[in-house]
């Protein structure tokens, strides 16, 4: 089968989905809305920007200021600029998709794929909705597609509904999103399935490819340090404020505990909270890490904290569970499909630092509970999210949708 995958080619999720499809023996042409190198396993890479994606990567690049006052001013300017850019994408992004549609249709007609698969709705699914009717279209939903992005503007709502009405098949990583997808227009008589958005967790690969941090970072983490990891970075829907305000509350009782924050080094919000709360070297802001190093940190951390206001199934949640890190997350409907509070993790009010601090303290002080959760979570991953379980489901789903063409 030949699949035209419409995705952000820089995304680790897209790369892992490509690995999954290749493992099924299918061919892939990648149409990326962001500039990227051609991923291994793809037949061809095509670049087609939409929603100012050629500028979006520049927005993500930040550099720390020099001096506290300059840093604060720069952080405010960068945050304001990023917010304005996001709003511009919400207002004008659907229009850019319509302008790119003729070229997209020409690409599909040239390639003649068996299936077009868009890895999320904004803005790749919106573009893929222009797939000619003779070619089946699969759309994947990510956790914030319908709860955060779709209602953000009149145009986003309209085009989201058009995308779901056009889709021949719908994939999501939680049941909640299939329910929301039907409410937004996906026909109830068309095939749908729930599978991890990254194509599944490969437990053997995670074990084999774990690797320690380089010396410059590992020196910040003494071997005997107990630490909590926050792997989510700074995003529009992460409660960075809640997380950082909980840190001193935990350290008042356990001053020996550290907090490790990949993908937060140089991020204005993180730097500002570090300064505001006078957090010291026990809170460590790291750059984005290779997967092997992140998995190693998960395996060494007491708990993994992911506090958000919008989510489906975060890949970092599954990875933390697979590596034995006790998960603590925001109390969202989608996450209750994975976590039973007090049994295999905790779910807290995303806006309550005190509640988050209490959850972290319980995880630190109750080793028996953590040990029980490790066994429960490993069973959940191996039976619901491991690649040996997920890949046959994806293959069957693709064949079902292909039969509709």
| CATH architecture annotation name of the largest domain | 3-Layer(aba) Sandwich
Number of strands: 13
Helix content: 40-55%
**At the first level of CATH, what is the class of the largest domain?**
Alpha Beta
Strand content: 5-15%
Average pLDDT number: 93
Low-confidence stretches: 61-71, 74-78
Q: Please, how many domains?
A: 2
Main pleated sheet: 7 strands, parallel
- Please state the overall shape, judged from the principal axes of the Cα atoms: globular
Q: What's the gyration radius in Å?
A: 21 Å
Verbal overview:
This protein is 49% helix and 13% strand. It folds into two domains: 2-199 and 387-402, Rossmann fold (3-Layer(aba) Sandwich); 203-385, Rossmann fold (3-Layer(aba) Sandwich). With 405 residues, the chain is α/β, with parallel strands linked by helices. Strands 3-2-1-4-5-6-7 form a seven-stranded parallel β-sheet, sandwiched between helices. It has helices at 12-23, 53-60, 68-111, 121-128, 145-149, 154-166, 175-183, 203-208, 215-218, 240-253, 268-276, 291-300, 315-323, 353-365, 367-385, 387-402, and strands at 2-7, 27-32, 44-47, 115-118, 137-140, 169-172, 192-194, 227-229, 258-261, 283-285, 303-306, 326-330, 346-348. Helix 13 (315-323) crosses helix 15 (367-385). The chain contains 16 helices and 13 strands.
């Amino acid at each position: 089968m030949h699949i035209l995958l419409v995705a952000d080619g820089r995304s680790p999720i897209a790369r892992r989905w490509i690995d999954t499809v290749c493992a099924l023996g299918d061919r892939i042409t990648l149409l990326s809305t962001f500039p990227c190198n051609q991923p291994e396993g793809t037949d061809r890479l095509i670049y087609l920007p939409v929603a100012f994606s050629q500028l979006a990567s520049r927005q993500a690049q930040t550099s720390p200021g020099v001096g506290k006052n300059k840093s604060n001013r720069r952080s405010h300017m960068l945050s304001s600029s990023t917010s304005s850019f996001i709003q511009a994408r919400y207002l004008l992004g659907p229009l850019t998709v319509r302008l790119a549609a003729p070229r997209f249709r020409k690409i599909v007609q040239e390639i003649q794929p068996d299936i077009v698969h868009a890895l999320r709705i904004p803005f790749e699914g919106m573009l893929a909705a222009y797939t000619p009717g003779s070619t089946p279209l699969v759309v994947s939903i990510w956790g914030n597609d319908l709860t955060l992005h779709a209602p953000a503007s009149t145009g986003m709502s309209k085009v989201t509904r058009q995308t779901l009405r056009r889709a021949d098949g719908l994939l999501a990583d939680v049941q909640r999103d299939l329910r929301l997808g039907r409410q937004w227009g996906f026909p109830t008589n068309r095939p749908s399935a729930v599978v991890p958005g990254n194509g599944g967790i490969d437990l053997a690969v995670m074990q084999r490819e774990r690797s320690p941090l380089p010396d410059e970072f590992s020196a910040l983490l003494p071997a005997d340090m107990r630490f909590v990891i926050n792997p989510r970075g700074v995003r529009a829907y992460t409660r960075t404020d809640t997380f950082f305000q909980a840190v001193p509350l935990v350290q008042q009782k356990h001053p020996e505990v550290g907090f490790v924050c990949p993908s937060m080094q140089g991020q204005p919000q993180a730097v500002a909270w570090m300064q505001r709360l006078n957090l010291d070297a026990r809170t460590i802001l790291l750059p984005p890490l290779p997967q092997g190093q992140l998995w190693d940190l998960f395996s060494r951390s007491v708990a993994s904290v992911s506090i958000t206001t919008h989510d489906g199934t975060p890949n970092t949640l599954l990875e933390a569970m697979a590596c034995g890190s006790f998960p603590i997350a925001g109390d969202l409907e989608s996450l209750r499909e994975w976590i039973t509070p007090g049994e295999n993790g905790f779910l807290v009010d995303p806006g309550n630092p005190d509640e988050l601090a209490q959850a972290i303290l319980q995880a630190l002080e109750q080793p028996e509970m953590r040990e029980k959760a490790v066994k429960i979570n490993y069973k959940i991953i191996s039976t619901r999210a491991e690649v040996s379980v997920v890949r046959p489901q994806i293959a069957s789903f693709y064949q079902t949708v292909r039969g509709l063409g």
